[in-house]
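User: My collaborator and I are trying to settle a disagreement about how two of our proteins should look. Neither of us wants to argue from intuition anymore, so we agreed to look at predicted structures for both before our next call. Could you fold the first one, then the second, and keep them clearly separated?

Assistant: That sounds like a sensible way to settle it. I'll keep them separate. The first protein:
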Amino acid sequence: MVESMYVNADEFVLTEEDLNKNIRARQTALWNKIREFVQYVNKGEILPALFDDSGKYTGVIETYKDKLNNLISKGTNSAKLDYLYQSSLTGQLKDRSKLTLDAYNAWFLLKNFDRMLKATFGKGISIRKGMADSFINAESNKYMFGDTQKLSHTWRDESKDYDESGEFGDIPRNIIKTRQLYDKEGKPIEN
């Protein structure tokens, strides 16, 4: 999520217009995972796009909400989800299982998108009043950069060790988490 919101092809997103464009692209990618699942399970049925060519939201989430809840939740009880997640960790997912897991995750993220965004970025991203938990058209910049100017939160005490990452705001911390770290010899550090 961090990669697609603030860093695009190793370039930082600097404008709210680009931020909103990247967020819509992320939402579209999630929706396309659901479309692929439905097309596979329902033998070729193709759901409409999330946004039309002009960037207008199509209303497809509300239109297909009940159908998708039933289709995606069918066969995804907690035991099945646990199995799918464990299989994904070992690289043993079959095509249908991968589509199911991807669709389940995408559907969960889309239904809770703004809440997940706030949980991930904290004050790093804010949402314009009256636009939370809704999809918007391309010309509306729903998401804004939040107040992230304050980097230091505490006075330092020389007698105490501290973790520098605690001093960063939500955005720099999340960007740093997504980057490969290297030791002083230039070798990648394993997580």
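The second protein, kept apart from the first:
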Amino acid sequence: MNAAQVLSELAEQKPLYQILTSQQSLEKYTILLEEEPPCEDAVKQLMVLLNTLVLKYNTHEQFQKRINISAIEDDEDTVTTDTPASEVTTINKDESESEFFQFIRNVLPVISKLLDNDPNVNAETSYCLEQRRVGMLRMRVIEFLSSSATHFGQGMWQAFAQEEVFGKLLEMIPQYPFNNTLHLKVYEMTTHVLDKNEEEIVEHLLDQTCLIKMILDLGKEKKAFQFEGENQNSCTYGYVAFVRKLGN
């Protein structure tokens, strides 16, 4: 089990979740993300952790006791709180959101740039065709972005639009026609946002991304989206079903 998995397990516990989303921790995450050149292994693990924190956000946001971070020593294996119960600060929901939510918005430009890091590696598929690999780092980023889009509201979507996250992710669908995990994550994110019917975001998706073009392109000849498989059987690119569902 690697460090990210350990921390993700710890995030299940509300007190430790508070530590992992404290200002002190968020500052460390920011430093790691902004390193040049980035340490890919470390960033991959961080994406796993951040994804877990996003998924647990709604569960833990009502946690009412703030742990006294200053009471935690770097060389200790245990967490202690010296603050008397009468002096424990109550977390306001908006304050809690403003820390973790604002952190994601602040680092979104850096995370969005990670989508541009094409590993330029091909792998042969079971169809005897070469497939461009998305790369594990970018897959971890995609998982995190999809979770962020579905767990936060309009404020996050506006940040996604500003950093062209929606457009980048939608453009990756036809670029990687066999990566159904990518297709599913983008589909879940896009349908969730469209279902909320926020006018500004819907207009962005329809007018400033390739979504409409992909849907209209399905009206072309069927063979444009097919290829010959291993036994010369006609197969359809994997993303077609997801785009059709988006069109519906």
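Some points you might bring to the call about the second protein. The first strand starts at residue 122 and ends at 124. Residues 1-104 form one domain.
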